[in-house]
Amino acid sequence: MWKIITEALPQLIVAGLKYTIPIAVISFIIGLALALVVALTRISTKRGAFNILRWIAGFYVWLFRSTPLLVQLFIVYFGLPYLIIPGLAPTGIKLDPYTAGIITFSLNTGAYCAETVRAALLSVPEGQWEAAYAIGMNRSLVLRRIIIPQALRTALPPLSNSFIGLVKDTSLAASITIVEMFEVSQQIAAANYQPLLMYSLVALIYAVFCTVLSWLQKWLENKSSAYLQTTQGGAHS
To answer: What single Pfam family name could you report for this chain, choosing any that match (predicted)?
Structure first.
């Protein structure tokens, strides 16, 4: 048993560092940027054509929160090649597994994080907007200097949880042939006929990764709390 573990462990860790973590990090960064745009669109009070953008943003959030991530992966990777668009994609939209995975995870993460960011932005008292406007700030400056820094502290715990969940969700990438950590464990289990041992080992590695990320989350929360206390102290003085 120990020989199997010592042979498999390096392969699993390499796959985790080469594919699992990078896929999660890249997807989360893209998803978070998308979430901020969607959240700001949904809380905007502009009228006219902006109503259509708000509807599109709301539909996007509803769609990706209401369907399974595995189904989304299958649609992007296996389904899009059959989507024929004359003049644009006459032979369908064919993506390599890695690109399909990044796109799907980013869109899924963006939908969930958009609601987190939107709730955090709305949690900032309306009076702070009014006070900032009263001293001549425009909306962009108010968001950048006052609203987003405060909302970030509120959103940090749920966003961190979303990232940790995304690290675990990357195991679904094996279903579209990405050779990430779980896929490697399946390949090794098929070769040594030790599925219980291999799946337990990969579960342990996921647990270690997520534990480290949980420690990082606590450190970031402490840092953001200290920053907020410092800024508030400076404001009062």
So the answer is: BPD_transp_1
Alpha carbons 114 and 119: distance in angstroms, whole number: 9
- Using alpha carbons, select from 146, 155, 124, 125 the residue that is nearest to residue 224: 155
Q: Span 127-152, mean pLDDT?
A: 84
Identify the residue with better confidence: 131 or 24.
24
**In this structure, what token pair is assigned to residue 17?**
């560092």
The length of the chain in residues reads 237
Query: In the prediction, which pLDDT does 52 show?
Result: 93
C-alpha distance from residue 107 to each of 103, 162, 177, 203, 232 (Å): 6, 13, 19, 26, 36
The 3-class secondary structure across the chain, one letter per residue, is CHHHHHHHHHHHHHHHHHHHHHHHHHHHHHHHHHHHHHHHHHHCCCCCCHHHHHHHHHHHHHHHHHCCHHHHHHHHHHHHHHCCECCCECCCCCCCHHHHHHHHHHHHHHHHHHHHHHHHHHHCCHHHHHHHHHCCCCHHHHHHHHHHHHHHHHHHHHHHHHHHHHHHHHHHHHHHCCCCHHHHHHHHHHHHCCHHHHHHHHHHHHHHHHHHHHHHHHHHHHHHHHHHHHHHHHHHC
CATH of the domain at 37: 1.10.3720.10
Structurally, the chain folds into a number of domains equal to: 1
Which structural domain range is residue 217 located in? 2-236
Q: What percentage of the chain exceeds 90 in pLDDT? A: 67
